[in-house]
Write a structure and sequence with these properties.
The chain has one domain: Clavaminate synthase-like (Double-stranded beta-helix). The protein is of the alpha+beta class. Strands 1, 2, 3, 4, 8, 16 and 19 form a 7-stranded mixed β-sheet that branches. A 4-stranded antiparallel β-sheet has the order 7-17-10-15. A hairpin with a 5-residue loop joins strand 5 and strand 6. The longest helix is centred in the C-terminal third of the chain and has 17 residues.
Length: 371
């Protein structure tokens, strides 16, 4: 720990709080006042997506059989390159607006969304069931039994401790976190009657502010925290691994964080209890994430893209009204990006590959070959 602590304290002593500069270091108020993260689908883009859909339907392809060579959209090439660049070298956040979801069936939307996805990056599996696309919606009271819970541990409401995967499929709030992928993407098909906004912040700015206010606590986050693979990869909460929350490699920052995985590891009793400093560092991280975030509301037809290395995202609670057609439904892709950044060697335990340009991330069977 001494080496990492000295490193961060030296940063704080020698540099300003915005030690990592550039468009990835933003505050919520910065993005609210900017439109650099918004792109619109033009009529010619939509026409090309419809043409590509007709082609794959004519060939009888299922959505998960589509590769980039099947879903040909040359007119979107500049937009796709712009999306990749903004996510990796820009602010790390992008909303693509204007897909006319009301024109299509759910199966057609899957094909369009997956076809767009394989042109932007490589979809990777989101759980050990091998799912490449997940419907994100409230699945009711049985999510813990279906997707993981720790019976002997309870949450604040007295119910069993739900895995991170299970919590995503409720209508409750989600704390700021990252997903195990270079880029997480959501297509909004229907929005809830009340709530369900994304809360997004720059993890770079969180780190910068922490170094400025409490360099000792920032140093803690450059050291490993035990996480559990419970729910996503394992039925056992004591299947744990060590991973730092902050990392730097070749001048590029990365953060991988989910408090639920850390809590699950410690609920299992398989790892030492968190020290007071470790707990304080986590509390400050979440406080800063809330302080620096902004809310993004997705309307039907919006596609959200977030670079997991430089952003944290959460969700406000929501209420559905199915009778009014306001039952929240999002489609989710995890994308490995062709222009992704290098990661520290100690991140291999989670990402499998840490070199830039490698297909990595995801859970379970491994990446799909997207051509």
């Amino acid at each position: 720990m001494w080496r990492a602590r000295c490193l961060v304290e030296n940063y704080a002593a020698a540099m300003t709080p915005d030690q990592i500069e550039g468009p990835c270091a933003w505050t919520g108020s910065d993005l609210v006042r900017s439109d650099r993260w918004i792109r619109d689908l033009e009529p010619e883009h939509i026409g090309e997506l419809e043409s590509a859909l007709s082609s794959v339907e004519g060939r009888g392809l299922e959505w998960d059989e589509i590769i980039a060579e099947d879903f040909v959209v040359p007119g979107l090439a500049l937009l796709i390159e712009d999306i990749r660049h903004e996510l990796e070298d820009g602010c790390g956040v992008l909303k693509l607006r204007g897909l006319p979801v009301e024109r299509f069936t759910e199966d057609q939307l899957r094909k369009i969304y997956f076809g767009l996805g394989v042109n932007i990056g490589t979809p990777v599996h989101q759980n050990r069931r091998g799912e490449l696309m997940r419907f994100i919606r409230d699945e009711g009271a049985g999510v813990g039994a279906n997707y993981g819970q720790i019976e002997q541990a309870t949450m604040a409401d007295g119910k069993p401790f739900l895995s991170s995967y299970a919590r995503t499929l409720t209508n409750g709030a989600l704390r700021h976190h990252t997903d195990r992928t270079d880029v997480v993407s959501l297509l909004c098909v229907r929005q809830a009657a009340i709530g369900g906004s994304s809360t997004i912040c720059s993890s770079v700015s969180v780190m910068n502010q922490m170094v400025d206010r409490r360099p000792d606590l920032a140093a803690e986050l450059f050291e490993p925290y035990y996480r559990s693979r419970h729910g996503e990869e394992s039925d056992n909460a004591d299947d744990v691994y060590p991973l730092p929350i902050f990392g730097m490699q070749d001048g590029r920052f990365t953060s991988h964080f989910s408090l639920t995985y850390i809590e699950a590891a410690h609920e299992s009793g398989a790892v030492p209890r968190l020290t007071d400093s470790q707990s304080e560092a986590l509390a400050l991280l979440l406080e800063l994430a809330r302080e620096l975030s902004f809310e993004m509301t997705l309307d039907p037809g919006d596609v959200q893209f977030l670079n997991s290395h430089v952003t944290y995202h959460g969700r406000s609670p929501f209420e559905d009204d199915p009778t009014a057609g306001r039952d929240r439904l999002l489609m989710r892709l995890w994308l490995c990006m062709p222009n992704n950044r290098p990661l520290p060697e100690d991140h291999r335990v989670l990402w499998r590959h840490v070199e830039s340009g490698r297909v990595r991330g995801g859970i379970g069977p491994g990446p799909v070959d997207a051509g």
